[in-house]
Structure to design on (125 residues):
């Protein structure tokens, strides 16, 4: 906040998720053991609710325009161990136990390349 004060949103104990104009927030999946960032996707209110109800990571697929359960076709589910909420309540970090690769390419993480100059190089795991 510009006045330096803190609101209930920032310091309170009530979950008050803030979605953007499209009804979305950022969801980040991190391996609960290794702390490796596995993937980042968008979540709407339905995805947040289903994730909390089932313990499996759900997202909103912008390309498909629908709810998406990570692993629904691959079987590579992300079992949510804990959900961290950022200070503005507009992003979630999910500490997960992955059941296989997180990336649709088959890579363990969607972040399998690094930017070096203007080139992408493979990250060695």
């Amino acid at each position: 906040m510009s006045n330096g004060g803190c609101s209930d949103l920032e310091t309170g104990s009530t979950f008050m998720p803030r979605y953007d104009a499209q009804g979305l927030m950022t969801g980040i999946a991190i391996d609960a053991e290794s702390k490796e960032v596995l993937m980042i996707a968008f979540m709407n209110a339905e995805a947040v609710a289903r994730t909390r109800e089932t313990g499996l990571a759900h997202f909103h697929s912008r390309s498909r325009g629908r709810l998406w359960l990570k692993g629904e076709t691959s079987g590579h589910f992300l079992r949510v161990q804990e959900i961290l909420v950022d200070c503005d309540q507009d992003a979630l970090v999910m500490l997960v136990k992955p059941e296989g690769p997180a990336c649709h390419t088959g890579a363990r993480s969607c972040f399998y390349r690094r930017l070096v100059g203007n080139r992408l190089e493979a990250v060695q795991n």
Notes: The domain at 16-122 is CATH 3.10.20.810 (Ubiquitin-like (UB roll)). The chain has a mean pLDDT of 93.
